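Purpose: get a first structural picture of the assembly so the mutagenesis plan has something to point at.
Setup: two entries, given in the order below. No constraints added.
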Amino acid sequence: MSEICLAGTGGMLPLKNRFLTSLYAEYNGKAILIDCGECTQVALAQHGIKISRIEIILITHSHADHITGLPGLLLSIGNCSRTEPLDIYVPDSAEKMIRNLISVCGQLPYEVNIHTLPDDIPTTFTADKVDSMLTVSTLPLVHSVNCIGYRLTQAKKPVFAPDRAKSLEIPVKYWKVLHSGGTVTLDDGRTFKPSDVVKENRPPVTVTYVTDTLPIPSIVDFARGSDLLICEGMYGDLSKKQSMNDKGHMLMQDACIIAKDADVKKLWLTHYSPAESEPETYYDTLHEIFPEVTISHDGEKTVL
Amino acid sequence: MSEICLAGTGGMLPLKNRFLTSLYAEYNGKAILIDCGECTQVALAQHGIKISRIEIILITHSHADHITGLPGLLLSIGNCSRTEPLDIYVPDSAEKMIRNLISVCGQLPYEVNIHTLPDDIPTTFTADKVDSMLTVSTLPLVHSVNCIGYRLTQAKKPVFAPDRAKSLEIPVKYWKVLHSGGTVTLDDGRTFKPSDVVKENRPPVTVTYVTDTLPIPSIVDFARGSDLLICEGMYGDLSKKQSMNDKGHMLMQDACIIAKDADVKKLWLTHYSPAESEPETYYDTLHEIFPEVTISHDGEKTVL
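Result (structure tokens, whole complex):
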């Protein structure tokens, strides 16, 4: 089970009524945070989130509105008595900037491991510090600096069939092993494998996070079939399209078209321009393109 | 005239109901900001302050809760179409950290001039970018890193006496010159100096800002006679005194004793520990030591 909270929905600068875009995804008590602009720790606190649960921070790119909350958050996590290492994943090109930035923290009571991710080719790694069945995939995006999108995929165990296990007279103490993918040999010599005691497979739960970027075609494949796509939409005003694209951003309408083409279940828009004070204005237009669109507000939550 | 706003009153980390300590002082439309922790720009916006008026930023020390809002603030000031240079004054020892930090901003549309101030000896300079009659004095404090206090002194023109000017038959067009300290020679050969047309001198208006530090005796002389002393008070609980002092901080009671000894007109407490959720609890005790104490809240304002 994952608990998702979009802590903020703004782009460029934090406003008094809208913090910067940052995603908190918790998997059974351990969490990933994507991006950490100024005030993200305050946004998290406002939405009742315990920062002590954050094990991994993923950074999309080096722009200030996605990273300058890092020193404060790391220090505050230190105040929560953390001593275990914390992992931060950053695009290759952002590493120096991030190291400079967090040097402000001085000596933390825990280790910060910075891992770099390729800017130019997709990659995938397991986020087993958070959940052994969770993988993170990346996609190079197209912005004014190198930027990457993230896809969080939590595999699900297949459905267990206790009736089959009972009929096979497998003692209950072995059920968990078999359900988790292990093989069991009983004292009577019989051997069982998972397929003996599970029913249908369950699809993974996927959350895709894409900001800041042009609406490039590769996002469609990357986001395909996601349970939730969180995607930037700087403006809803079509007249802004060219100037947005020039800056490496997309419109809300672009995000809806991607969501539709990628056949995602839900789309949450985010990263609104500070000049876009009422993104709800565009609801009817956006809903027509992709009915499952949410014009997110800070603190948008769901359980997947 | 100066308009003072204590944008935040917290120490260590920004809370959902208390931002970090930062002082905004505006003199006839141009302003000084002292310290800029995470979320300071949001605090300023909440209190209706126009960041475009900031000409000078003074930094007390390099701890994150006093500086990590700088990149975001500088970028936001850039979004206000600023093109004139902006001055930041920092203690010598904080320069590298500040330069690292603001490198996150990339290319700003205006120049940022970083001036260093000695960590270990007091100094004074004129803040004429803000007001030609405004000076800034510093005091080395005692904290876990080098830290300095600031005293803002706005000199006042003496009171003009139009009856004297009239009786001397000085044309009105020369009054401003004389009031501003100039000497005037009329066509008829008579020469006048300011003392011919002014009455009593007016005392300067002074605001002193002191955080983070042990309650060292030199603060008393530094703050002496201030119209307003803004001073840290991490805790009101006397049992915290030793642990506070070990970290280079003081109690609210220490600040009240300094205010009393320095004979300041008013004291605003600030920089409360996140653990001090209700500083008002100590009002009676503090009022007994120094009756003109205010247990400040974010957005505390006055005009001096």
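The first strand of chain B starts at residue 2 and ends at 8.
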